[in-house]
Design goal:
Length: 250
């Protein structure tokens, strides 16, 4: 069986138990070498074939997965974070379907979750924002116009931007044009959960310079919104006067 496994954000103990078990029984692991922590590969048994996909094309990856697959074989395709986000797995899954090869997905801890942990924040705060927008600046991969940063910014929701920390000035300009006040809190989290993790905190107007000073231009997330600020309302869930299925107010 072929398994697409989320490796988590970096720290080797942030893979799921299921993902680690699959690595422990793998005959072949094809891993996204640019972002997957190589320490995870030490979980694989002796003799396991390890293939770094960083230099491979889609066809080469699919060929490797299909060659490795067979009765009683465990083949792991290891992607950073959670495979469903910017993982380019759809095209791999479609190619495997075409070849009649079955596969399963194992979710992972996405870097946007690890970034919240690093920042010690809650993305969804009552009366601040109840929505998290995950998106990116357009780069070599285009983004549909209706999802431009400017138009998403108009919601004033919490935003987490992948693949955009190398374009901080453009990004922050779009956020501001879209409607966030320039003093909206913003942060960059570099390599969340890795030993070299770094945080830069500022506002939409100060972040480009602070990010540049810290030398951050890749493997980082940009978090924007008042969830990084000081003001919010207490949740209803734990309010003494609020009854729900598990607790009755006096
Ligand atoms: N599937 C992955 C995202 C892959 S796209 C996930 O769920 O996290 C690669 C981008 O993810 C990077 O450019 C960066 O924006 C972000 N990223 C991945 N790991 C990260 C980490 N540990 N810390 C901060 N950003 C990270």
């Amino acid at each position: 069986m072929i398994y697409f496994v989320g490796a988590g954000p970096g720290a080797p103990d942030l893979i799921t138990v299921r993902g680690r078990e699959l690595l422990r029984q793998a005959h072949t692991v094809v891993y996204a070498g640019s972002l997957v922590n190589p320490k995870l590969l030490t979980e694989t048994p002796a003799g396991c074939q390890l293939v770094n996909s960083a230099t491979m094309t889609l066809d080469q990856v699919v060929a490797k997965l299909s060659q490795a697959e067979g009765p009683g074989r465990t083949v792991v395709r290891l992607h950073s974070g959670d495979p469903s986000l910017y993982g380019a797995i759809r095209e791999q899954m479609d190619a495997l379907r075409e070849l009649g090869l079955p596969f399963e997905l194992v979710p992972g801890v996405s870097s946007f979750c690890a970034a919240a942990a690093t920042l010690q924040i809650e993305y969804t705060l009552p009366e601040v924002s109840q929505t998290v927008i995950l998106s990116r600046m357009k780069g070599r991969t285009p983004v549909p116009e209706r999802e431009s940063i400017n138009s998403l910014a108009a919601h004033g929701a919490t935003m987490v931007l992948f693949l955009s920390s190398g374009m901080l000035s453009e990004l922050c300009a779009c956020l501001e044009e879209g409607g966030y006040p320039p003093d909206t809190p913003a942060a960059v989290v570099y390599k969340a959960s890795w030993p070299e993790e770094k945080i830069v905190r500022g506002t939409i107007s100060t972040l480009p310079q602070l990010g540049a000073e810290a030398g951050i231009n890749a493997t980082a997330l940009v978090v924007v919104g008042n969830c990084l600020g000081d003001d919010y309302q207490l949740s209803r869930l734990y309010a003494p006067d609020f009854s729900h299925g598990f607790r009755k107010a006096p």
